[in-house]
Specification:
Strand order of the largest sheet: 3-2-1-4-5-7-6
Shape: globular
Number of strands: 7
Order of helices and strands: HHHEHEHEEHEHEE
Structural class: alpha/beta
Radius of gyration: 17 Å
Strand content: 15-25%
Length: 214
Amino acid sequence: MTAADFQRIVGVSRETQDKFDRYAAMLTKWTAAINLISPRSLPDLWRRHFLDAAQLRQYLPDPKETAERTILDLGSGGGFPGLVLSILGCGHVHLVESDQRKAVFLREVARETGARATVHAVRVEALDLFPVDAVTCRAFAPLPKILDLSERFLRADCGKDRPIGLFLKGRNVDQELTEAGKTWRLQTERFESITDPEGSILRLKLLPVEDSAS
């Protein structure tokens, strides 16, 4: 997949594609020095990383004003999926990345592209609680661990609809759902990934305590 293919499939403007081109160039350069993505995936960068992240856009909650949407992205690494969603104009994205070098990279890309993103160079456990509309992550941790770390955000009262979790998962998704179901009561939807035949997108909400007895 080429940059032009990505632009056509996702349907972005030339201006937005220019931002992604700058992002891709920085990612390629920085990956030579720090482990942002696997170097073996660079030849397939636009499908494996950019399109993989961009496909989440259609599953985000739909507030009255997109600019009001707040997204929390866990273990952002090279910026997938959170920074991609920010460049696509999906809202204000909070990128959580405890690796200081990766956090510097995320800030540099956000500055170069004008993305509405705030980088938190801390572990998610140390992050102050604030209201969000969605929590996202990719290749971060098994689902039970993700829920452990994000529960307080997914349960937070943001004065809107209940926050959602939106997670890109691989071939072990069934096992992870089974394990998560031993501890959590979930409302779950599952969608096929357009970039990975073995991949899935989970969209879920934590059920309140009063629903657990139903």
